[in-house]
Amino acid sequence: MEASQAMESGQLTKTAAEVYEEFFVPALFGEWASRTCDAAGAAQGQRLLDVGCGTGCVAREAARRGAAVTGLDPNEGMLAVARRLDPKVDWRDGFAEKIPFDDGRFDAVTCQFGLMFFEDRVKALAEMWRVTKPGGRLVVVTWDSLERTPGYAAMVALLERLFGEAVADGLRAPFVLGNPAEVLGLFQAAGIPGASADTQVGRARFPSIADWVHTDVKGWTLADAIDDAQYAQLQQAAQEELKGFAAADGTVNFDSPAHIVTAQKA
Known about the structure:
The chain is of the alpha/beta class. It has helices at residues 3-9, 14-40, 57-64, 76-85, 121-130, 150-163, 165-172, 180-189, 209-218, 228-241; strands at residues 47-51, 68-73, 90-93, 106-112, 132-143, 196-206, 252-264. Helix 2 packs across helix 4, helix 2 crosses helix 9 (209-218) and helix 6 packs antiparallel against helix 7.
């Protein structure tokens, strides 16, 4: 897979997946796992499918609450990390557009920060709805717009200034479904009635600017888009241009809002 295709689809190498779990999950994704599971009503005895599970932070949280959890993802690098962290979860290799389960199999289906990377978003939503049982819930979480996420707006601008639009687009990709009306429109197109969106504010937290850059490059598809010399250039430029996001002790902390979209099947 070429670097441009990887950036569009969010596909990571095994090494990047390990960095993703070590750095991205605590910095960005971890706090949303509990919110996603709350919205899904994850609980003892429930069967839950997490689509686009990545390294499994939502699946592990649901399992901790007692649910019988299946995690689905097409990325072997992600799944290798997920299996190592929790071998009790049923980790499956597969695509959201063709979920390998019967109709109405799950009490809840979740998809946290994956919808923007699916090749056919409407088909993926229709598939998630298909495997949700009557009375069950579908919960999809997408990042808010880049403009409402100041730290990443600045990081994208820096990447574009240094390396051009194509590289910057790799970090724009997670924010392309930032308009909740657009996400609700996808639900409607997929034949899913009664969906509602709840916008909540989270916090991005990194130990330092250097760690922030390391995470965004080495834990994401940008790892294959810029070379070592460019990475060093980015690290140096970031110390000056992103210093406004660092506290006196050097830690980085900024708003990172997202939309939690929920639909309950009749």
